[in-house]
Every structure is written in C-alpha cells, then in structure tokens.
Design goal:
Blueprint: H1 32-43, H2 48-55, H3 66-79, E1 89-95, E2 102-108, E3 113-118, H4 131-136, E4 141-145, E5 149-152, E6 158-161
Antiparallel strand pairs: 1-2, 1-4, 2-3, 4-5, 5-6
Amino acid sequence: MPRPMLRQNLQTKTDSVLSLSSTTPVKQELSEETKMKLDRLLRKSRSKQYMDMIKNLDAGGHTHNQKETDDIINAISQEFPEVEISGILLGIVSKCYLGDNYEVHSIDAGKRIIEHYRQGQLLPGGMEKARSIAIHGGYNFIEVYIDCCRAVSANGTVSVIK
C-alpha cells in the first residue's frame, strides 16, 4: 500500500492551512488542487527554530549522536505538521565548514543519518543535484524533494529550483 504524502485528507480552514480532520489517507495520485496547496505550504518561510536546528549540522557531532540526529528529523516534521514530509523530502544539503576537503553535508530524511562529504564524493539518493547550489548559491541550505529543490535563504525565505 502506498504511503500517503499528506498525513490525512485535506480540508481548508479559514486561515487556508491544511487541517488534519479526517483519517482517510490521500491517494497516491494527487489532484491539482492538492498539489497547489502542498506547494503553497512548502513555499512558506521557515521558522527561526528550524533554521537554527539545520545550522547546527555543521558542528559535526551529530554524525555520532543518534539522539541529536533524531531531534533534527523531528524538527523537520514539526516545521510541516500537516504534511507527511518523509514521503517527499529526500534530505537537506548545505555547505560544510569542517575543513578544506569537505564541501557539503547532508541529512538523509529516510535513513535518519547525517554525513559530511569531501570533494568528489557523491551524495546518495538524488541529493547530488543540490550540491552546486549549496556550494555557490548563497543559501543557508537546500531541501531536496523528489520533484525539486527548495533553497532557503538566511531570512527563511524559500526559492524553488526545478
């Protein structure tokens, strides 16, 4: 059985936020209206708490501390409570400042691991497409989705790159 992308059926509230009022899973094939709502939700500016959590990835200690890694994964889920983000988010990539040989680091949302990558070392699971944006794009980090990349600036604004 396919995993639903949204946690539950979508119903519009007065503030146009997706609600969780039904328990019926959404079909694998999303309607155009649902896709537009999902896109609008994922274009919203990111919170300061979320931005700070992702910024701490460069400290390097998370690679050996599963609790801190799980805290980061939970922060991602809390940023988008209306969406089953694990079905569409491949991971997050950003520039790495650990040393001369390191270019980027990533958190793989599916495997729940954080890795730091050296020059020439390929990123797994479709995340390689975000490497050049992370290194040269002037963004804090890149959220890599199955259909696009969402580059997040220092102020939390989101740019969609297809």
